[in-house]
Amino acid sequence: MRRPNAVQTLALGFALLILAGACLLSLPAASRSGEGIPWTNAVFTAASASCVTGLTVYDTATRFSAFGQLVLLLLIQIGGLGFVTASLPAALLVRRRVGLRRRALLQDSVGALQLGGVVRLARRALLVTFLCEGLGAALLALWFCPRYGLGRGIWMAVFHAVSAFCNAGFDLLGTGASITTEAGEPLLNIVLMALIICGGLGFLVWDDILTHGRHFRRWRLHSKMAFTVTLLLFAGGGIAFWFLEADHAFAGAGGPARVLMACFQSVTARTAGFASVDQTALSQGGVLLMLVLMFVGAASGSTGGGVKVNTFAVLILGVRARIWRQDDVNAFRRRLDDGDIHKAYSTASIYMMGAVCGCMVLCVQGAGLTDALYETFSAMSTVGLSRNLTPSLPTLSKWAVILMMFAGRVGSMSVAMAVTKGRVNGLRYVPEKILIG
User: Fold this and answer.
1) φ, ψ (nearest 5 deg) of residue 325
2) Cα–Cα distance between 403 and 110 in angstroms, integer?
3) Is the predicted pLDDT of residue 418 greater than 80, yes or no?
4) Which residues pair with 64 in a beta bridge?
């Protein structure tokens, strides 16, 4: 048998992680009622946690016991970091040599641009993760402990900090409506937004921040694009939601609360999954904007999903170069590699084809078009937001959403490459033009 390559190993690893999580969540000890949940729902919940999505068929706080919640927390943490990166501390603790194959897996797991220095980057990824989650948990404890007591408050602070940094969107508030009842709480909302953004920037960006600090010119091109586009999407999305939802989802909210809700909606659309407003109350323009932001997602090499910020930037820059009849695609006084441009267009194309197929399955099973599109983009981009469709999904639709969440976390391109056999063709055919446009 041929040894699996790095992409196939990562896909298989996530599949095994989902299977292990489903086995644990289906145990009677994982439920408060003492009765195991159905296998399909167990796989769905495990896939949602492992793929840091947040779509749920059950309310996490009221359905799962402390053991079940701990299993979900571990799945979220491992899924957010990637199982290869998450296992690195154990390998370093026993002073095990990180071989070439493991380095190749780490390169795909943390999104490194080259094999050299990948172990150092993975160490920094772990450092940034635990620092952000630790600081976030400490701040969230100031909000949770006065309301839920010391022990329960600390547990909820840790759970929400990990869930937010990993862009998972699972919550323990027990309302069944995410944090909509706490939309006007500044501390809770601001800390969650900060953690979501920190996790969605990507580990390469954090490596540049730790290495070069505020010297933006010395950052990698990847980091410059990811940071700049993330900032523009956050600001632009917040302003757009402020105007679009003034008479809809934000109706009745005061000025400061509306600013907070607009900012949170702009951030959570980028694969986070927490909801501070009822998604069914969004205007048609708001729904369309959400679909666009979910399509873009977070930065490459981050805990988030989507086609990724850098891919979206390359698409826009490529269109701009074509309109201006330029042969090269440039950004920050650098020329983009042709292979990266082709990969960006291929990734977006595979994403859209997967989304169309998934949406068709949901529509055939009885879902409305708007709700089906929302659920599909949410699953493919590992966002976790829903228009109350997830709990009522038929079995076939649940398995379709599971596959979309899996493809969204591993990468639609990676999944396609994992199930196909690469061919090296030494022949190059005679070129011939076709009509485009």
Assistant:
1) 55, 45
2) 22
3) no
4) 31
Report DSSP state, residue 388: S
In DSSP terms, 335 is beta-bridged to: 330
Distances (CA, A) of 1 to 4, 126, 416: 9, 34, 20
> Measured at the alpha carbon of residue 92, what is the angle toward residues 135 and 162, in degrees to the nearest 5?
25
Pick from 191, 188, 170, 172: nearest CA to 77? 170
| pTM for the full predicted model | 0.91
Q: Report residue 289 CA to chain centroid gap.
A: 18
Reading the block at residue 306, the tokens are 């989507």
For residue 36, which amino acid is it?
A: G
Cα–Cα dist 195/393, whole Å: 30
Give 111: exposed, middle or buried? Use CB within 10 Å, 0-12, 13-18, 19+: buried
Which residue carries 């995410």 as its tokens?
Answer: 178
The amino acid at residue 60 is T
Which tokens is 385 given? Answer: 């937001």
Distance, CA of 214 to CA of 224 (rounded, Å): 12
d(CA 54, CA 238): 22
Q: Half-sphere exposure of 53 toward its Cβ, with a 13 Å CA cutoff?
A: 33
8: left (phi over 0), alpha (psi -120 to 50) or beta: alpha
The tokens for 184 are 């006007």
Other Cβ atoms less than 10 A from the Cβ of 244: the count is: 21
φ, ψ for residue 184 (rounded to 5)? -100, 10
**Which of 116, 119, 110, 108 is closest to 80 using CA atoms?**
110
Quote the distance between the C-alpha of residue 54 and its chain's center.
9
Could you tell me the CA-to-CA distances from 244 to 128, 130, 178, 240, 271 in Å, in that order? Answer: 35, 37, 22, 6, 21
- How many CB atoms within 10 Å of residue 145? 16
Rounded alpha-carbon distances, angstroms, from residue 136 to 39, 128, 141, 143, 382: 34, 12, 8, 11, 22
Contact 377, 291 (CB under 8 A): yes
Q: What is the pLDDT of residues 148-198, one digit of tens each?
A: 999 999 999 999 999 999 999 899 998 888 898 888 899 999 999 999 999
User: What sign does the CA torsion over 27, 31, 32, 38 have?
Assistant: negative
Residue-level length of the chain? 437
Assess contact for 18 and 401: CB atoms under 8 A: no
